Amino acid sequence: MTTKNHKILLIEDDPGLIELYKNYFSLKGKDLVVAEDGEAGLAAAKETLPALILLDLMMPKMNGMEVLKALKADPKVRDIPVYVLSNYLTQDQQQAAIIKGAVGYIVKSDIELTDLDGLVSKYV
Amino acid sequence: MSLLYKLFIPIAIMLGVTFVVVNHISVRIIEQAALEEKAQFLIAHATKEAQDDFTDQDLLATTPSTAIQPQLERYISNLQDPAIFRFKIWDSNGRIVYSDFAQLNGRGNPPEEVKNQFANTPSLPSWKLVEPEEANTTESSFGKYLHITVPIQDNNGDTRYVLEEFAASSFVLNQVSSYNRMVRAVAIAAGAILFMGLYLIIRITIIKPLATLAKNVEVIGQGNLTHPITGGGHDEIGTLSRHFNAMRLKLKSNLEQLDAAKKDVEHQVIDRTKQLQIEQARLQASIDSLTIGFIIIGAEHKLIKANAKLMTMLDLMHAETDIAAIDTKLEGFSLREKVDKALRLRKPAVYRDVSIGAQFYRITIAPIVVGHSEKTTGAVILIEDITEEKALERSRDEFFSIASHELRTPLTVIKGNASLLHEFYVGKVDEAKFTDIVVNMKDSASYLIGVVNQFLDMSRLEQGKISLQPQKLDINRLIRDSVDELLPSATQKKLAIKFDTPDHKIPMVYADPDRTKQVLINLIGNAIKYTTEESITVRTTIEDKDFVSIKVEDSGPGIPQESQHLLFHKFQQASDNIYTRDFTRSTGLGLYICRLIVRAMGGKIFLEKSEPGKGSTFVFTLPVAISIENKEHARDGMMNA
């Protein structure tokens, strides 16, 4: 990770959540970049090379797992830590995400915003 | 041979023999009497003539032989009789002084009878029957002879001479024979009359009634029981007739009863047959009206009955349907093999989710076991098309998943924004109630997320979509973690949570840690929710070598007896009724989800005890890890759950 910046890439398709996270992280003084589908997310990751990627799983065009696989296959972005975001994750899905190279998983409905901020702060 | 002959041949023989014997005896008696009479007559005649013809002077003469000769001759001539053919007169010296047979004159050897006449003085005349040679004659044609000796006595009674005469018995007998013949004729006539009479009597009194009886009995024998048996009067045949008649009446009544019984049975058979037809029609109508496919097969897979639904369901033609055709339609299922298996095990088998082509079927095979025997006579097969049911189930599941997902995202946004407001704007808005409003929003959103999570959890557990990750687990440690987690909410209500575990080591359990924790949080959380004072106790005990049990005791209001059965069911809270909602906010799914989880891990969950006002004790058990390792199949079962 040679070009370390303080950008957080959120790949998420739900406008409500995008709005929430944008507002929250701007209030927290963090730089959040948003991509609204998998393909756009993958492109944005390569372009901006963020310090952290928050990746939703259920998305149009390219789902989160495919994006994760693509990210980990590309040496340019391979080392960027990825947190998998979901509404509901079975243990199998959690394990699959870890195996594919995510550093962790976040259940969006369960996590408190402050806790999310704490997590993100380790990387940016 | 008729009875008449049987009776009369011996009777005739007996009569004949009797006649012969009686005739013989009577002839003998008559002849004897005739001979006796003749002899007596001859004796009397000779005795009288002797007295008349001789004087004492004649008899006492010392030289008599010549002097008396004329008297003797006169005497003999007086005695002439056609029967007598020989005379002799003997003197006391044993000489013949007179004989009608000249050669014998003078020669003497008198017979015993003559000697006796001289020896016994005074003596009596005698007679006897002798053979011809004794009479010195060969003229046997006369038969026997009467040999008569008569003494000729003087006045003193001394025997001076003895007359010896022979009379031919035939002379006597010829006279009686005609009489005898008459007697015989009369006897024969009497016998014949007797015979005829006997015949008539027997014929009238025995044979005829017997013949009538026989005829009557024959009529009965031919089956006509209405013909009365009469006759015979007050004798044995009459008794026999009456007995026969009584027998006939009895037989008639029995036959009538039998006939009635037969008719009754026939009626019953007709009734039963009708009943059976009705039952069969009902059965056919019932099975035809079934909305599931129905097959009865007999031995060796012979198709006995299949209903209309089966035909349409499997698109079969009625005429050519047999078990092989059905088997072909259920390709890949191998119905006959499954039937054989069910028959072998003599247990019904249910095959859920049999997928054939685009359809799903539920197939039930129930062997027909006869009584309590070992025998099976076939099987009943039920085939249900559950394709629609499956589709419905799937859409319901999908609805739950989608609804949960779709609900959660906006809820997360609401909750997040409430948090955001709380964190950054509470101090900036000049309104006292703003904080409360924001906190209320945030809590409600959190609660709603919890509800949705429970729905999703339940739905996934019910569908078996959650695969548990069981592992060796220190249950005590998990309990301590859970208690720590819940301690803030307990402290808030000023409640203490005690943890009580025995000194000896609780064995490792085999369970999914996250799900077990979920159960613990639920049970302890409930205890906190419902308890207002005192404390909550969590205990672990070794139930037996296979299970560890975890008990959560509260001192809450307890659960009324009548509501306890509602626990662990979907959307049930053990409150008095659905309108009296629990004062705590709850979906009523918590215990149901706990039950799904505990069961999936091979344990049990139940309410151990609950007394109103004294609290409740909830218990769940978890399998001991070692015991699970020994039971591979149990592990497999849990993995599949």
Characteristic key phrases:
heterodimer, A: 124 residues, alpha/beta, 5-stranded parallel beta sheet, 19% strand, B: 641 residues, alpha+beta, 5-stranded antiparallel beta sheet, 18 helices, 54% helix, 18% strand, rod-shaped
Read across the widest sheet of chain B, the strand sequence of neighbours is 2-1-5-4-3
Report the major sheet of chain A.
5 strands, parallel
Which sequence of strands runs across the widest sheet of chain A? Answer: 2-1-3-4-5
Low-confidence stretches of chain B: 574-584, 633-641
Beta fraction of chain A = 15-25%
| Biggest interface | A-B, 21 and 25 residues
SSE diagram, text form:
The complex is a heterodimer of chains A (124) and B (641).
Chain A: E1 7-11, H1 15-27, E2 31-35, H2 38-48, E3 52-56, H3 64-73, E4 82-86, H4 91-99, E5 104-107, H5 113-121
Helix pairs in contact in A: 2-3
Chain B: H1 3-53, H2 56-60, H3 64-67, H4 69-78, E1 84-91, E2 96-99, H5 112-119, E3 126-130, E4 145-153, E5 159-168, H6 169-221, H7 236-289, E6 293-297, E7 303-306, H8 308-314, H9 323-329, H10 335-345, E8 349-356, E9 359-369, E10 376-385, H11 387-424, H12 434-463, E11 471-473, H13 475-492, E12 496-500, E13 509-511, H14 513-530, E14 535-542, E15 547-553, H15 561-564, H16 590-600, E16 605-611, E17 615-623, H17 625-630, H18 632-640
Parallel strand pairs in B: 12-14
Antiparallel strand pairs in B: 1-2, 1-5, 3-4, 4-5, 6-7, 6-10, 8-9, 9-10, 11-13, 14-15, 15-17, 16-17
Helix pairs in contact in B: 1-4, 1-6, 6-7, 11-12, 12-16, 13-14, 14-16
Description:
The complex is a heterodimer of chains A (124) and B (641). With 124 residues, chain A is an alpha/beta fold. Chain A has helices at 15-27, 38-48, 64-73, 91-99, 113-121; strands at residues 7-11, 31-35, 52-56, 82-86, 104-107. In chain A, 42% of the residues lie in helices and 19% in strands. Chain A has a five-stranded parallel β-sheet with strand order 2-1-3-4-5, sandwiched between helices. Chain A is globular. Chain B has 641 residues and is of the alpha+beta class. In chain B, a hairpin with a 4-residue loop joins strand 1 and strand 2 (96-99). The interface between A and B is medium-sized, with 21 and 25 residues.
